[in-house]
Amino acid sequence: MENKDIIQIKNIRFKYDKEYVLDDLTITIKEKKITTFLGANGCGKTTLLYLLNKHMTPNEGEMYLNGQGYSEYGRKEFAKKIAIVHQQNTAPDDISVEDLVGYGRIPHRGLQSNNSKEDLEKIEWALQVSDLLSLKKRRFSELSGGQKQRVWIAMALAQDTEIILFDEPTTYLDIHYQIEVLKLIKELNKTYQKTIIMILHDINQAVHYSDEIVLFEKDSNKIHQGTPESVINDVNLESAFQKKLALFEHEGRKVVLTV
Ligand SMILES: Nc1ncnc2c1ncn2[C@@H]1O[C@H](COP(=O)(O)OP(=O)(O)OP(=O)(O)O)[C@@H](O)[C@H]1O
Hints:
- There is one protein chain.
- 33% of the residues lie in helices and 25% in strands.
- It is an alpha/beta fold.
- It folds into two domains: 1-81 and 161-259, P-loop containing nucleotide triphosphate hydrolases (Rossmann fold), CATH 3.40.50; 88-160, no CATH class.
- Strands 6-7-8-3-9-10 form a six-stranded mixed sheet, with helices on both faces. The chain has a four-stranded antiparallel sheet with strand order 2-1-4-5, with helices on one face. A two-stranded antiparallel sheet has the order 11-12.
- The longest helix has 16 residues, at 175-190.
- It is a peripheral membrane protein.
């Protein structure tokens, strides 16, 4: 059975200054799938993620979440639907892992009140899924880059949303931690049915971990959306990155030579 459309973006236009960064963009995001945005620097991936997170609003066009227009959602209600894991984050000095993960509960419990039993259970669950139980009392500032990234993911999990957005979740991580984080994201999707939308720069990782890819053409406002198999080909890659890239088959998947 086809997964339903959880987000619909219809003919949106967005500009910071004079020129439109996104122009007449139409995309649908399928529920419980992993969708990855792929494309050259400056093509508008982060901009689109911020529009999806309601951090910014399109100048024109419509966006719907579960069939309801974005503008009809209040802030708190929206924060219970979509969480975001940013590329770079800062945390207060001395904060513990479990307290930081607890921030994910703010849309549910408010800023002032204490954690309820349900809040504490969700925090514990998020720590467990992210393999952080043994580190929960540790100071966040003392963790490695890979462990820190898992804490941000746990915080998004504690927010208990249907959808999680990831802005380049593997940046600054070595290949071991990159794979660890991508496997965790895959598990959130497969085991916990989260709808995932992420930005990646590594084409091979995007092919391997995504159900759907949105490939942005460079210097045009066109995108290609579909399965990795249907989107990743010589012609589309050249129009996205303005480079000829060699493609191979490996274990039934496309692999791109990036040297
Ligand atoms: N706050 C801003 N004010 C003005 N222009 C901006 C702002 N943020 C981004 N832009 C411009 O919008 C365009 C799209 O930027 P965006 O960050 O969305 O691209 P991206 O695809 O995420 O790039 P990257 O892969 O480098 O992160 C770029 O031309 C960028 O310079």
